[in-house]
Amino acid sequence: MTNAPPASVVGMWVTADGYIRQQLLPDGRYDEARGRKASAYQGRYEVVGSRIQYWDDTGFEADGEFIDGVLHHVGMQFYREKKED
Fold first, then answer.
1. Is the pLDDT of residue 84 over 80?
2. Does residue 11 surpass a pLDDT of 90?
3. Which parts of 1-85 are beta strand (E)?
4. How far is the C-alpha of 10 from the C-alpha of 36, rounded, in Å?
5. Residues of the chain with pLDDT > 90: what percent?
6. How far apart are CA 81 and CA 17, in angstroms?
7. Whether 29 contacts 17, CB under 8 Å
8. Which residues contact 42 (CB under 8 A, 6 or more apart)?
9. pTM of the entire predicted model
10. pLDDT, mean of residues 33-46
């Protein structure tokens, strides 16, 4: 990855039911938990405009798009987790 991801995407993204939690890290890596399974998927990601591309460490690729503050990825919608004060 040549550039750091935009700060606007770095952080935790969660499905509405909380089952899938995707942490987009500032170094261009991601860590995805599913249910009780921590680190179910890990890899790198890159953001260009509103598009995000994933390269999982196991070899598969996926993509998504940020639309109105919601991450649309493989038929799911992820919402930015709000930090509690």
1. no
2. yes
3. 11-15, 20-24, 29-34, 37-48, 51-56, 61-67, 70-73, 76-80
4. 22
5. 86
6. 12
7. no
8. 29, 30, 31, 32, 56, 57
9. 0.89
10. 97
